[in-house]
Amino acid sequence: MSGTAPFTVAIDGPAASGKGTISRRVAAHFGFAHLDTGLLYRAVGRKVLEGTEPVDAARGLRAEDLEAPGLRSAEVGQAASKVAAIPEVRGALTDFQVAFARRAGGAVLDGRDIGTVICPEAEVKLFVTASDEVRAHRRFLELKDGGADVTETGVLDDLRARDARDSARATAPLRPAEDAVTLDTTGMSIDEAVAAAIALVEAARL
Ligand code: CDP
Question: Could you read off the pLDDT of 92-132 as tens digits, one per residue?
C-alpha cells in the first residue's frame, strides 16, 4: 500500500462493545486518522436536549460541538440513539464521514453503519460484540470512573434500549456487513481484542 492511498477500517458494533478503544489503538498503531462517528450523533443529541430541532442541529454541527462536556453520559447516548433514527439527520452527517473514510493515508471509523452505508468498499470490516453483561460492566466502570452516579443494572437497561432502537430502525440499522469479520470480545482482554484487530488489518494490507 502506498502511504497516500485510501485505506479504510470500518469498525461497527453495539453500544460499549469495545469498538472505541480498539479503533483508537488500531489507528495509533498504523498511523491512520480516527473518527468516532458516535460522537457526531451524541453532539446532535445534546443540542436536541437543549432545545434545538434535530435536523437543524445536524446541519449546523460544528467541530467544537464534538468537545462539549457531558457527551458520554447515558442521557446524551439515549438522545443520540433517538436522533440517529431520523433519515435527514443521518443524511446531514454522511458527506463528512464518507470523505473522512477515503482520506489519503488511511482511516479508522467506528459506529453502527460504517461497513454497510458509509464505506461499503472498506478494506477491513470488523463487527465488535460482547455479551450484554460484559458490555454493561465495562461501561459501568467507565462512567463511574468519570464520576457519574450510575448502577450496573441501570447501565445494562440503557445499553439494551439503545441496541433495540438502533437495530430496529429502518435507515442504516445496526447490523454486520455481509463481509464483516465478527470479533466477540466477551472473554478477551482489551489487549487481546486490539491484537486480533491489528492482525486483520495487517493481513488486508499485504
Ligand atoms: O459508545 P457507544 O457504543 O455507547 O455509543 P456511540 O458509538 O457513541 O453511539 C451513540 C449512538 O449514536 C448509538 O446508540 C447510535 O444510535 C448512534 N450512532 C449511529 O446511529 N450511527 C453511527 N455510525 C454511530 C452512532
Answer: 999 999 999 999 999 999 999 999 999 999 999 999 999 99
Flag whether the pTM goes above 0.90. Answer: yes
CB contact set of 148 (below 8 Å; sequence gap of 6+): 73, 74
8-205 maps to which CATH number? 3.40.50.300
State the distance from the centre of ligand 1 to the C-alpha of 81, rounded, in angstroms.
6
Cα–Cα distances in angstroms (integers) from residue 6 to residues 125, 172, 188, in the given order? 15, 23, 30
Measure the CA–CA gap between 135 and 4, rounded to whole angstroms.
36
State which amino acid sits at residue 93.
L
Ligand 1, closest atom to CA 114? Answer: 23
CA distance 32 to 128: 19
Q: Which residue has the cell 473514510?
A: 101
Nearest CA to ligand 1 atom 18: 38
Q: What is the DSSP letter of 2?
A: -
> Would you say 139 and 132 are in contact if contact means Cβ atoms under 8 Å apart?
no
**Cβ neighbours around 168 below 10 Å, total:** 10
